[in-house]
Every structure is written in C-alpha cells, then in structure tokens.
C-alpha cells in the first residue's frame, strides 16, 4: 500500500515537474525578460543589475531549480504588464472562477442525474431518444457559441439577464463572492449554464450507462419480486449504485472545468483567472502565463491523484497494476 | 489437384469500388440510420460549399476591392431592409456574411483535415513502434502521451500557439497561422491515435501471420506497415472521425480567443470573434450565422463519428 501511494505521488510529481519545466521554458526563452521589464531608455548598468537580480546569469539547471522552488512557495514573480505580484493577481481572480465552476458542477448534477435516470428507465420512449440526441448536440456545441446564443436571446433580445461581468460582490475575508447579492446571482446564470452544458451531457451519459447496467442485476429483480414500488427500486436501489463513478468523474472534471472556464470567461467578460490568462497571452505577460499554467495543472493533477489513491484504498487490484486506470478515464 | 484447377479457372469478379461500397455492411448500416445519413448529406453539402465557394457567391469577401461600403450593415434578405443579393446580410464593411461563411468554412475544414492527417501520421508511428517493440520504448512513448493528456487540451494548444507566435518574426506570424494551429492541435490529439493503434498492435503482434512473417525473415518495418497496420485501421478510422470534429472545435475556439487565424484569412472561429464586437449593436446576423454554421458542421461530423463507432463495432452486430 505504501509503495502504491509513493508511486502515485511520484508520478504526479513527475507530471508537475514537466509542467513547471514547460512554464520555465516559456518564461526563459520566449523573448528576453529584461527587455520586457525595462523601458527602452534603460542604461546597460540597469540592464545588468536586473539580469543579476533575476538570476539570469546562473546556469540553466540552477535557474530551473530556483523557479521550481519559488513556485512551490507560491511565488511566481512580478507581472510584466502592471508590475503587481502575480500570486496576488491570481488570488484576486480565483474566487470568481471557482464560484463559476462550482455552480456549473452543481447544475450538471441537478440536471444530469435525473435526466440520466429517466432515459435509462424509459429507454425506448420518445423523450429518452430526444434527450439522447440532445446530448450529442450538447457535446458538439462549442461553448463560446452557446454563450453567444444565450446572450443574444436573454440579454439582447429579451433583456432579462446581464451579459457580462459579475454583478455586485461581497468580500468575506479574502474571498469575494457574488452569491450573496441578487445582481451577483443573476450575473452567474448565463455563464454557469454555458460552462455546465458539456458537463451535463457527460453526467447524463454516465448515469444512463450505469443505470442500464444496474437495472439488469439480480438485486433489482429481487426488489421487484418483493413488490417494492418503482420509485424506490429506481432511486433508492438503482441510483445509489451508480453514484460512485459519478462522484469520481465530477471530482476529476473540476480541474478540466477550471481550464475550460477561460472560454466562458472570455465570452461573458467574467473577471476570473481564465480572463487574466487570456489577457496575459495577448500582452505576452509571461509570469502570469506561467503561474496560471502551473496552478491549473496542479489542481488537475492533485485531483486525479487523490481520486486514484482513494480508488486504491477501495479496490486492492489497482494497487498491483500501477493504478493508471482512473487517470486514463479522465483523459 | 483437379479441384484446385477448377477454382483457379473461375475468374475473380472485377468489381468497381462503387459496387463494393454498395454491397458493404457499412452502406447498409448507413442506409438504415436516418440520422447518420442526414449528417453525411449535410457534411457533403458543407464540403461542396467550401470547395466551390467562388462559384456559389459573387463576392470574394477578403478582396478589399470587391467590398462596397454602401452595402454595409444590411440585414438578411427576409428582413425589411434586406437585399436579395446578400442572403444573410452584410457586416460593417459591406462583406457578404454568406460569402464570409463559405470562405471561412474552407479554412476551418482544411485546418481540421490537416490536423487529422498529421496526428494520424504521428499517432500510427508512435502506436506501432510502442506496440511492436514493447518494453522501454513502449514505456517511454506512452509516458509522453500520459503527460500530455494530464494537462487540459485547450491549455496545451494555447501554450504551443503563443510560443510559436513569439518565436516567429512578426511578418511571418500571419502567413504561418494555419500551420501553427495544425501543429498545436496535433500536439495533443496524436495520443488518441497512438493508444488506439498500440492496443490493436499488441493483439495483432501475437497472431500467427505475424509470427510467420517474422520467421521467413521479413524486416520489422515491413511487418509493421504492410501486415499489422492494415489490421489496426478500423478502430483508427473512428478515432479520426471523432477527432475531426474535435480539431475543428479547438481551432474555432483558439481563433475565437484571438490566438488562431488572423482577420485577413478568417476561419469560422475568427468570424465569430469579429461578429462578437457587434453583439450589442443590433447586427445579430454577423455573429449568429457563422456560429450556427460552425455548430451544424461539428454536429454533422460528430453524428457520423458516433454512427461509425457503432457500425464498426463487431460486438454490436
């Protein structure tokens, strides 16, 4: 068991080091950091001083080592664009993104699970066929196009909901939340639906497949033989046995959703990490890009590793075989 | 011996490709699946529309000389102020939206097809090598794939494009935009092909015809390419179809974010990005029609991929 835990953590650390290496490569070799941080009138002495201060005269490996060490302490340097601390910049934007992602996740479960159960029970009905077709449409719809359709309909045409921004927010300590004001909640509706659509179809298909499998088992037949009402059979006995993989996938998808939120954030001008990242890409603000990449990958890899470890605890067979199964499923 | 001669005497029927296709299981399955047939027809129309765009619309939307500002901001033909020759309306430079969509779909389809071709080539090479040689080579190649997949696809694509854009001199950036996109998207999508081919190769490698070929001294490269590869292609075709939809989607997303095709040679994604500026100015047609067209295109490809996966799955027959 210990060997399994160590192996999984070592593999996660390997991935993180690779990501950090990529982030470091762009930091070091995409343009000259000194040129980007100083204006054109800077003297040679100023340049040399900054070069020394940034440690750019050290050897390649030492620089990489320092970058990793600082990143592990949450220090990603100073933004080229507005001379602010990168970790503060990202810290300010993180609550907006996480709130969006969590609301989208909740939506996907609230809508996806019942639809999945219904399509599994009434497999041959028109309703189930329609939902099944709609789920292919859901997968094919680019999320930015969906966002645009929603804005055109609900903001431009009907004027019901705001099309951009977060509305009013309330600060609770370091966390700024939009959930406590009505304008904040209204601003969340369209972006969270946009982000959730893909996830809804994922949950729906998963629940449907698991339910079809479960409904064939003996204990369901036995429940029927006992004369239990249908809804108890479906929801208490059937659905319960489907929830484990749903929870797993939902947990692992959170990392993906944080990355995908950057598209939704761009469409709705949502002031989250993703928009910060896209702006950084446009202005070649490399410390911000590197930090975003490392942080999002860390969340992604950490969630995958935790899920793998939990599975290892539950299922001893996985410990023997390197336990890559769960992380493959996520990809 | 006599019997053998008799069999040899019967001439092998030379059937054309068309006849063979008409008698195949695949065509039968397509005929009996209205959704897939519809998707195939829609996709065919879109491809034809892209191929013959110059014949279908009178205006080349990216030749500034052909644009007339007097025709700017016209709504679709069925609206009150619409004009017949601009069926889907025009943008603020007098560009015909329908023409822009047809020309844009050319770029989207070309980039999608090129991405599939490149990731197909990389994926088969890696998958065959990993599956055939096994051991360390297998471990090394598949570990690279695992690492790539452990970062969200869209992030890898954004990083690769922005890196190329920085490395290339500014005057080359626009000209190379399509190539950069193809490289960036293939960087992640080859892994799917490699995994599919590797899994199939692992099965085929143990079969007797491969052992026979090895015994009579056929070289590994020849065994891989002319013996194993043809037998792994069925699952790869499904991967390729589904990946075409994905490639078009990722390209559109990157272009929408402003990291893809430039406004001088826009794909559907770029058109949507441009139209996004008019979202609140009442010119809904500039953004709605390219978005809908993109959705229909991706939906058609995905429906076909879904059908193909079921049709080629021997367990479902």
Automatic annotation (TrEMBL), chain A:
Its main location: membrane. This is ABC transporter permease. InterPro entries: BPD_transp_1_N, MetI-like, MetI-like_sf. Belongs to the binding-protein-dependent transport system permease family. It is a multi-pass membrane protein. It is found in: Cell membrane. The chain crosses the membrane at residues 12-30, 100-121, 133-156, 188-207, 246-270, 290-314. Keywords: Cell membrane, Membrane, Transmembrane, Transmembrane helix, Transport. Residues 94-311 form the ABC transmembrane type-1 domain. It comes from Microvirga terricola.
TrEMBL record, chain B:
Residues 105-305 form the ABC transmembrane type-1 domain. It is a multi-pass membrane protein. The keyword Cell division does not apply. InterPro entries: BP-dependent_transpt_permease (IPR050366), MetI-like (IPR000515), MetI-like_sf (IPR035906), OppC_N (IPR025966). The keyword Transmembrane applies. Keywords: Cell membrane, Membrane, Transmembrane, Transmembrane helix, Transport. Its main location: membrane. It is found in: Cell membrane. Belongs to the binding-protein-dependent transport system permease family. This is ABC transporter permease. It comes from Microvirga terricola.
């Amino acid at each position: 068991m210990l060997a399994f835990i160590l192996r999984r953590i070592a593999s996660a650390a390997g991935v993180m080091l690779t990501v950090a290496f990529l982030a470091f490569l762009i930091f070091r070799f995409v343009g000259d950091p000194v040129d980007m941080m100083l204006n054109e009138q800077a003297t040679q002495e100023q340049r040399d001083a900054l070069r020394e201060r940034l440690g750019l005269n050290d050897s390649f490996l030492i620089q990489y080592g320092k970058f990793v060490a600082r990143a592990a302490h949450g220090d990603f340097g100073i933004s080229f664009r507005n001379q602010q601390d990168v970790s503060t910049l990202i810290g300010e934007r993180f609550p907006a993104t996480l709130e969006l992602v969590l609301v989208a996740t909740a939506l996907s479960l609230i809508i996806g699970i019942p639809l999945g159960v219904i399509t599994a029970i009434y497999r041959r009905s028109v309703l189930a066929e329609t939902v099944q077709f709609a789920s292919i449409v859901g997968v094919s719809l680019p999320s930015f196009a969906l966002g645009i359709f929603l804005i055109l309909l609900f903001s431009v045409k009907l004027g019901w909901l705001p099309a951009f921004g977060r509305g009013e927010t309330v600060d609770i300590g370091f966390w700024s939340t939009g959930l406590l004001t009505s304008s904040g909640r209204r601003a969340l509706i369209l972006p969270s639906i946009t982000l959730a659509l893909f996830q809804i179809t994922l949950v729906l298909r998963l629940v449907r497949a698991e339910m079809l499998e479960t409904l064939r088992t003996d204990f369901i037949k036995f429940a029927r033989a006992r004369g239990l009402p249908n809804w108890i059979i479906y929801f208490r006995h059937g659905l319960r046995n489907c929830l484990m993989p749903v929870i797993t996938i939902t947990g692992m998808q959170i990392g993906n959703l944080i990355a995908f939120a950057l598209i939704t954030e761009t469409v709705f001008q949502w002031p989250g990490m993703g928009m910060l990242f896209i702006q950084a890409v446009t202005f070649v603000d490399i410390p911000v890009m590197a930090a975003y990449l490392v942080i999002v990958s860390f969340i992604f890899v950490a969630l995958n590793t935790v899920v793998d470890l939990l599975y290892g605890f539950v299922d001893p067979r996985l410990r023997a075989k390197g336990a890559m199964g769960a992380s493959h499923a996520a990809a | 011996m006599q019997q053998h001669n008799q069999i040899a005497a019967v001439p092998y029927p030379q059937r054309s490709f068309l006849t063979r296709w008409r008698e195949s299981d695949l065509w039968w399955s397509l005929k009996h699946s209205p959704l897939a047939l519809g998707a195939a027809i829609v996709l065919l129309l879109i491809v034809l529309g892209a191929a013959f765009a110059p014949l279908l619309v009178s205006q080349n939307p990216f030749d500034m000389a052909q644009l007339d500002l007097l025709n700017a901001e016209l709504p679709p033909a069925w609206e009150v102020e619409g004009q017949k020759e601009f069926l889907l309306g025009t943008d603020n430079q007098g560009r015909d939206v329908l023409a822009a969509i047809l020309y844009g779909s050319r770029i989207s389809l070309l980039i999608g097809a090129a991405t599939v071709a490149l990731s197909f080539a990389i994926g088969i090479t890696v998958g065959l090598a990993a599956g055939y040689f096994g051991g360390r080579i297998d471990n090394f190649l598949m570990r690279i794939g695992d690492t790539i997949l452990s970062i969200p696809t869209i992030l890898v694509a954004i990083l690769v494009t922005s890196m190329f854009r920085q490395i290339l001199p500014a005057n080359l950036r626009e000209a190379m935009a399509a190539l950069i996109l193809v490289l960036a998207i293939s960087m992640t999508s080859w892994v799917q092909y490699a995994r599919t081919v590797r899994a199939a190769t692992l099965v085929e490698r143990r079969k007797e015809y491969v052992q026979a070929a090895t015994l009579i001294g056929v070289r590994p490269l020849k065994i891989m390419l002319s013996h194993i590869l043809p037998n792994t292609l069925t699952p790869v075709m499904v991967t390729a179809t589904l990946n075409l939809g994905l490639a078009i989607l990722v390209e559109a997303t990157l272009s929408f974010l402003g990291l893809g095709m430039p406004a001088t040679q826009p794909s559907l994604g770029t058109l949507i990005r441009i139209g996004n500026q008019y979202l609140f100015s009442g010119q809904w047609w500039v953004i709605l029609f390219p978005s809908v067209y993109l959705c229909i295109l991706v939906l058609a490809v995905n429906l076909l991929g879904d059908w193909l996966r079921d049709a080629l799955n021997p367990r479902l027959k």
